[in-house]
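Exam review. A common question shows you a sequence with its structure tokens and asks you to describe the fold in words. Practice with the pair below. Do the first one on your own.
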Amino acid sequence: MRTTLDLPDNLFKAVKTRAVQQGVKLKELLATYIEAGLRAPQIPKKDTSPLKNPHPLPVGIPRILGAPLHPALSNAELQAILEEEDIENYHCVISRSSKTK
């Protein structure tokens, strides 16, 4: 069966070099590597539960020179802020381009 693999250049060069050194075709060497990987013992899945940090960092940072204290934001909240900025920038670009026409 044919398939396409996207490999980093350095990895492809290393595998191709190994195939030449061993005097085998690239597809034969890759098939051997895949078979060996499938026969190897499975790597246990990582625990995805939140890690318990015995020394958590404080959420708040003391105010320095009157700077406002901002609570920690979740990734979703940060993404929403970035998307809002992108939309504002898009509208600015659109309004500028419509004025120049």
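Now try the second one, then compare your answer with the model answer below.
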Amino acid sequence: MNPEHTHPTQSPPKPVQAGGQLNIFERYLTFWVALCIISGITLGRLLPNLATTLDALSLHQISIPIAICLFFMMYPIMVKIDFSQAKKAAQTPRPVLLTLVVNWLIKPFTMVLLAQLFLGNLFRPLLSQTEVVNGTTIPLADSYIAGSILLGIAPCTAMVLMWGYLSFSNQGHTLVMVAINSLAMLFLYAPLGRWLLAANELTVPWQTITLSVLIYVALPLLAGVISRSWILHNKGKAWFEQVFLKRLGPLSIIAMLTTLVLLFALKGDLIARNPLHILLIAVPLFIQTNVIFALTYGLAKPLGLTYEDAAPAALIGASNHFEVAIATAVTLFGLNSGAALATVVGVLIEVPVMLMLVKVCQRTAFWFPRDPAKATLPDPRCLAVKP
């Protein structure tokens, strides 16, 4: 018998998107985020005095409730950082350099241009109100621009690990970029923020921005480094990865959702009273996120990056460290300021949009060369191949 007729003809493999088996939380993350936002806004409307009460819980203008939530959101991410991976990143510097160029030389200035174009010019007739900030009356549009700037100069360090995980990209590169951006923010966020805000006729104290970065970035980073070193030395790597990180895992998610509820509870009444303003602020933020993602993802192709490096580079560039931006805006301009509202709108826009961009990465993985050794893939079928 002819052996060619003993087995059915196999069809060529179909292209498979990147990504793997997601649990119910990851699969419906957009729903949980939306639920927390709605719950927060509803809570703020039902308890309008909540914002005033929580705002009173502050130390040197630093909100204690927000600081606690953000610490527990950031710490589980920071404790995973292995600074020895910087040596590996130095051997393949192109993804890191691409992200640094986008984060610090392109993104802040595109945010200023878009904010000025839409909020400062096209939408200004619809934003004719003023507000009092630190005893000075300023146009509300300028306050919104300030909040947008604070978002644009804060590269993501926490949530980006979630985006990297969902896109099944190079978590080693992502961790290195978290470390580099965290350190860079300590030195660049305050002077860059002060300069850009001053250039837009909004002068802010250098010390206040620096304090915000130290509280919201340096403290969880330091706690993560110290506790990681102690645990590895006393408990061993196996216990750290198999016991500690698994127990710690839900904490970051719970803290993130609690932070969303708290932030939108604080702004629930303001958001409900200014639906048009929310939409107007969202326009430049939405465009900024997509433009930076497309630019970084597009540049990764001619640079010869693999998908596992291209995806986190684009996702890091597109996302913002909204925790620090919100905290800084609240510290500089007040809890009920337009700047603080603009940064909260950043959360409203960023989480759903970043989930959309993760899907874009998954479904376009076959555009790039693949290096599955760089990614943590639970199933070899998760590899994308060209059709």
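Model answer, second protein: Residues 237-266 form the longest helix (30 residues). The beta strands are 58-59, 62-63, 130-133, 136-139. Full marks require stating both points clearly.
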